[in-house]
Amino acid sequence: MKSYAVLAFRCALEFVGVQYFSNKAARLGRANDNQSERLTGIRTNRVTIHRFRWGLLFASCCVMSAYLCAQLISAHTAQPTKTSTEINEAKAIAAFNAAYSVLTYPRCLNCHPAGNAPLQGDDSHPHFDRVQRGEDGNGVYALKCNNCHQAQNRSGLNMPPGAPNLLANGSLDYTTPRWHLPSAQTPMIFQGRTPAQLCLQLKDPKQNGGLTAEQLIHHVSADSLVLWGWNPGEGRSTPPLTHDEFVSKVRDWLENGGSCPK
Ligand code: HEC
Ligand code: HEC
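^ Those are the sequences you sent over. The predicted structure of the assembly is below.
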């Protein structure tokens, strides 16, 4: 599109240029005419000037069409750029699909449930005691998450897992627990989402807690609940990618344009 605008602009310039020079030539010719008329009394043949004018116009047309051809050829040879964005798109989608295997792994999915209760175990069954999300994601009444879930995993099988709070400066606070679900208003549901649905949802600031792409990358690389997925406590399995691999997939996805699977 840009090259056509440039082409049109150049054609216009060329045309104005031809008009200017041929007018000038004509004036020059007339001046010469007058001069020669004065000097010799012989009128110069105006046909020469007209020939010159048309010749210039013709030459300019040749230049313009040569330029047009060059543009067309380069438009065709510019194809590889297009292919490379397609490759990036394919790379983005492949990276998202890899990240999806982690996002929907039970360690993550159990806190990103479709309903209003956290889930448990590799089969993602409802949390015992009918623990509920609550408005703010911290549970309801006596069943507040942090009554049982501490800032670290409790050792032993079937003991409550835990994770430290994140301070504003980015450091981890091992004196206060961070264990909770997303709020009822922004539930960040991963359970049951297809790759296409989850991909669009994660990029949507209205559904992801207002995160930009950069903040989303930061969240998956530094959030203590995400990190917990790879340190889930005794007897619990870990996601199919390492944490580093997962972060680099999320990065590849977003930095290659954040395209989503269809
Ligand atoms: C203990 C519950 C819990 C666990 C376990 C958990 N999350 Fe979350 N996750 C949350 C909460 C709560 C939020 C909302 C952020 C907040 O409230 O600070 C969130 C937000 C997110 C977000 C950003 C918001 C969005 O949906 O776009 C991503 C991405 C995410 N989690 C990925 C993961 C991944 C990947 C794992 C597993 C490795 C995981 N989470 C494990 C509770 C959890
Ligand atoms: C009464 C204590 C108690 C309360 C309250 C509680 N939990 Fe739990 N939770 C546990 C215990 C114990 C386990 C471990 C169960 C096991 O491994 O068999 C557990 C396991 C979990 C798991 C499973 C992790 C996994 O991947 O298998 C999640 C997720 C979870 N709780 C989230 C929550 C959330 C969110 C809240 C608050 C809304 C909450 N829990 C409230 C005691 C509690």
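The radius of gyration is 36 Å. Residues 2-40 form the longest helix (39 residues).

Shout if you want it in another format.
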